[in-house]
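Re: your question about Histidyl-tRNA synthetase

S., sorry for the slow reply, the queue was backed up all week. Below is exactly what I fed in.
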Amino acid sequence: MKYRRLTRQQLEEMHVEFANFLATQKIDAQEWETLKREKPQVAEEEIDIFSDLVWEGVLAKVEFLENVSANHMHLFHLTSKEMKLISVKVNNPEVDLRTQEGFSWFKRNFQGDFVDYLTASKAYSDDPNQDKFELIEQGGQITKGALYRWFDDLIGEQ
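Result:
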């Protein structure tokens, strides 16, 4: 398995896609039940293969990730050639960016002395999807990139 198995909830949400996947393997509903009962390891392998296929599709399309902690925001733009990062650090221990109050404070003070910015870029390894997956496993959330674009515009104007 290249990535990780989809959660039970994710598999349930994708039951139609999973059924279609099984059909491409020439496994119908009755045979699937038999596999689960008599050859559970084979059934597990089919779930793992399906999970990797889903991850490959998602990772190929993801463009933006956000990883927000109490005093940091790591905003990624995943281009075709490299990973671009805008890192924001809040140097005020009373502020937690994960809360409405903390983010409101940040919006009012983003240009103040208590906020530092850093930008960087990094080329992908030989496996860009694996690089993206690792960022997700470290807490990155797939987004549409509004926050990244806002910061990119802000930093570009300076």
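Helices lie at 8-13, 15-24, 29-38, 40-61, 100-109, 128-137, 146-157. The chain has a mean pLDDT of 92.

Happy to talk it through on Thursday.
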